[in-house]
């Protein structure tokens, strides 16, 4: 028999080569009194203390890593620095992590610790989902920075008291965005997480055809397996699509939207132009508001862009006129010619009256809990 703790925290012998039982040589007598005698030795008690200190240091390391991931900081680059800072602040037990060449800060160790943290956090969530009375899935596609298509799956469930909870379930890489591929990935996730499929009553998706197609969409395929499941398309996404389609029906609105983006890029790409705009706003006594970008991935971002432009339109026109007259900038001249028209100004004020109400409705649709029956 060997003592695992004593061998792990082996102390150097006082002199010569040591043949200590349970440490260098195994004990051949399987008797409880020998175990009690070894447990009472000074070396074993020191090993127990050393192991307790190591456990404390490892738990502290897990807490530091959990803090980084919770705050969405880069854990591989910041973890070792955070441990060093903790040592400087008096957490001396982190020195126990440095055992020979091992210091528990390598990328492999950090990844393993993250997997453990994920398991610990996930277990009670999956237990609550399994014990719930009703479950709903929320599915959406996205693309990460490496241009790989990802499937994001969230779950909403109701406990026995009728309280609703929303939790992240999984994020998996899919080879393409076809409905068959997405459905296969969802089934794999449900099986891997042991989600009780007989209690899945809802599915929330965006309004894309691959999700809501009535012939072979994701919702249709899942409803073939779970006939009791109700599919609901995202109301905020549909509202954004309605606004975009309505705007696209007017040719001038397409040019208007492109002009807003060009105006944003004109000032964003030059510190000098931004300084001219700021000086014009100060001279006219206006707030120095940025020319906002219009993004397709940000629902109704045009509302904020139009609002800022309406409040700062005089300064923008003055800055463009300054660039046109003194620097002979052709881009500024073209932008000024488009902005300094009755049609453009009327469009700005018209949208400034309408878009805030649509934005408010969109934010209402995006709330976690909305009841339209009250």
What does this 3D model show about the protein?
This protein is an alpha/beta fold and 374 residues long. It folds into three domains: 4-111, no CATH class; 132-233, Nucleotidyltransferase, domain 5; 241-365, no CATH class. It has 14 helices and five strands. The longest helix has 29 residues, at 42-70. The protein is flat and about 100 Å long.
List keywords for this structure.
single chain, 374 residues, alpha/beta, Nucleotidyltransferase, domain 5, 3 domains, five-stranded mixed sheet, 14 helices, 11% strand, flat, DUF4371, RNaseH-like_sf
Q: First CA to last CA: what distance?
A: 72 Å
Radius of gyration: 32 Å
Oligomer: single chain
Give the number of helices.
Answer: 14
Contiguous runs where pLDDT drops below 50 for at least 5 residues = none
Strand order of the largest sheet: 3-2-1-4-5
Question: Which structural category do the helix and sheet elements fall into?
Answer: alpha/beta
Overall body shape: flat
Number of structurally distinct domains: 3
**Helix and strand string, N-terminal first?**
HHHHHEEEHEHHEHHHHHH
Task: State the helical fraction.
Answer: 55-70%
Largest sheet: 5 strands, mixed
Strand runs, count: 5
Summarize model confidence as the mean pLDDT.
Answer: 86
In what range is the share of β-strand residues? 5-15%
